[in-house]
Design goal:
The structure is a homodimer of 137-residue chains. Chain A is of the alpha+beta class and 137 residues long. Chain A is built from 6 helices and 5 strands; from the N terminus they run H-H-H-H-E-E-E-E-H-H-E. Chain A has a 3-stranded mixed sheet with strand order 4-3-5, with no helix packed on it. A two-stranded antiparallel ribbon of chain A has the order 1-2. The first copy, chain A, binds a DNA duplex (25 and 25 nucleotides) through helix 4.
Chain lengths: 137, 137
DNA sequence: TTAAGTGCAAAGGCTTTGCGGTGCC
DNA sequence: GGCACCGCAAAGCCTTTGCACTTAA
């Protein structure tokens, strides 16, 4: 939490009660929440915060790298509270995305010709399929 | 094109002029068009087709596997005319997605624990970064 | 003939923008 | 005290839905 506050100051962002509250909710969440999900989760403890502030704050956090935005397959934007490298399993039926870790995949080499002109931030394997709940396997 | 028509018939879909026209545009396109992009591209040659038909047809095509939907990072749904396995490079600034092929990555093994209960359809590496136009490298 | 497909229009979600009031620095 | 931030409201996209007309089979 100290680190979060420092980070905001570094970035020239003001440390407001709303931002702290949103940050706490994010750190407690283990999924890939949408802005609406975060907003709902907050409404119990912080009933006066606006959806707008939540949404804008999430975008701001993503901008400074506190969280990330996740690839999605339609619908609303999803955020990822896990900023360490990891990979995704995606159900094409229900859209659910779950994480997994694999150091081997983290370090798979992408051909140089592909990324020569890019400033690479990271790489992620996305496995698509049908989850058990949706009739897979 | 014959194969496309056969496929429609197999799936019980009627072969309409609109569907043929959309299919042609798709095959000529090399990117990851949105419904709107396809619609615009058609408007020169097929000015009477409606956006609705384009959009619904794209969803239908994705449903039967003629095209695929692509992960996106906000904004509108994107389609992929390349159905063979391939990988993506994604610019986090402008959102552009480009393809690359790499057989080594195609066959990277995902740990069994991850996919045990899934019916896996495919896997894709997504490399994130900043492209030259957006200030990368 | 008839079930599927098309086009139009409206509605519904999510996101973005603008602006006056508020509060961190 | 200034400037960033918040909350509210409206507008803008994109997608989805409903319905009457048309058309491929």
């Amino acid at each position: 939490m100290e680190r979060f506050i420092d980070r905001c100051r570094q970035e020239g962002l003001k440390v407001t009660p709303q931002r702290i509250a949103i940050y706490q909710v994010l750190m407690a969440s283990r999924n890939h929440p949408s802005a609406d999900t975060v907003y709902r989760e907050m409404s119990a403890t912080h009933p006066t915060i606006s959806f707008d502030t939540v949404n804008r704050t999430l975008l701001t956090f993503a901008d400074i790298g506190v969280i990330k935005t996740v690839e999605s397959y339609s619908g609303s934007r999803r955020f990822d509270t896990e900023t360490a490298p990891h990979h995704h399993v995606h159900c094409v039926k229900c859209g659910r995305i779950s994480d997994f870790n694999d150091q081997g995949i983290d370090t798979v080499e992408v051909p140089d010709r592909v990324v020569r002109d890019f400033s690479v931030i990271g790489q992620r394997m996305v496995v698509s399929g049908i989850c058990p709940e949706c009739g897979g396997k």
